[in-house]
Design a protein that fits this description.
Blueprint lengths: L2 H11 L3 E5 L3 H14 L3 E5 L1 H7 L1 H15 L3 E8 L2 H9 L4 E4 L6 H15 L5 E6 L16 H11 L3 E4 L16 H10 L3 E4 L7 H9 L2 E6 L1 H15 L7 H24 L2
Parallel strand pairs: 1-2, 1-8, 2-3, 3-4, 4-5, 5-6, 6-7, 7-8
The structure holds zinc ion.
Zinc ion binds next to loops.
């Protein structure tokens, strides 16, 4: 099965796949352990900064080998590809799915850039995700820029994109105020187009709200901030209680906390 088929299957069963970012071996293993425990497929996401941190080939080899070791269904996805050049590098490196994010550009430029990536990705048969409307980046406020059903329909028709990240009230990073998803808008977008809909910025959104989004067309739920936060918060707490210098004895405790978090998130998307 490839990612396009995975997302199509989710559309048919009104379910979603959790797409998790990873940053190092520990967070990668945490994803795998939680996926194995909940019998979930994994969609492993890499951003440009994670690629720069780990190295493109290293990250891919590590992800592929870990998928094989844990015996789960797994794929590698480029999250927020900010340039066509980065997308090309990832296609050549064997990614199963890529996102081109030109959401901050005018509509026509977003269409043009996304269409270019759809063409480039076609020979590889990989899934292509784009973003329409604006999901606030880390440290920014969500100030409007919500996706409209009309634009979504037009965008999908003009680009041929497989998956679309929509702006319906979520934001990247943590929320200062309780997030509220515009489920009605989502339902209208879902009715207007059969593209696979993606929810970015799920960290901190109440689980029942995410489930309501899944009932109304979301098939891919992205999770990043809570993974980093859980690892670092627990690591900090552990370090205040020990002088242990062997990181191989300290890191696993922080990893365990991430596994616990992710088990709950996999249950969330399975509606358990
Ligand atoms: Zn995102």
């Amino acid at each position: 099965m490839n990612v396009k088929e995975l997302l199509k299957g989710c559309q048919q069963s009104k379910s979603a796949v959790l797409a998790t970012n990873f940053y190092n071996l520990e967070t990668l293993q945490a994803v795998m352990r939680a996926a194995q425990a909940t019998k979930s497929p994994v969609l492993l996401q890499l951003t440009r900064s994670s690629i720069d941190y780990m190295g493109l080939k290293n990250a891919v080899v590590m992800a592929r080998q870990t998928i094989a070791d844990y015996g789960v269904d797994g794929w590698i996805h480029l999250d927020h590809g900010g340039s066509v050049e980065l997308v090309e590098r990832c296609l050549d490196a064997g990614f199963d799915s890529v996102m081109i994010d030109a959401s901050e550009e005018p509509f026509e430029v977003n269409v043009e850039t996304t269409r270019r990536v759809v063409e480039l990705a076609a020979p590889y048969g990989v899934n292509v995700e784009a973003e329409l409307g604006y999901v606030a980046k880390l440290g920014q406020q969500q100030g409007g820029g919500f996706t409209t059903p009309e634009e979504a329909k037009l965008f999908v028709e003009q680009t041929g994109v497989d998956a679309l990240a929509v702006s319906i009230g979520s934001a990247h990073g943590f929320y200062k105020q309780a997030p509220k998803l515009d489920i009605e808008r989502l339902a209208q977008i879902h009715a207007a187009t059969d593209v696979a809909l993606v929810l970015h910025g799920s960290s901190g959104i109440p689980h029942d709200m995410v489930q309501s989004a899944i009932s109304n067309g979301i098939v891919k739920v992205n999770l990043a901030t809570e993974i980093k936060d859980t690892f670092m918060r627990n690591l900090k707490a552990i370090l205040t209680t020990t002088d242990e210098i062997d990181l191989r004895k300290v890191f696993p405790k922080a990893t365990d906390a991430v596994v616990e978090l992710l088990v709950e998130k996999y249950k969330m998307v399975k509606n358990l």
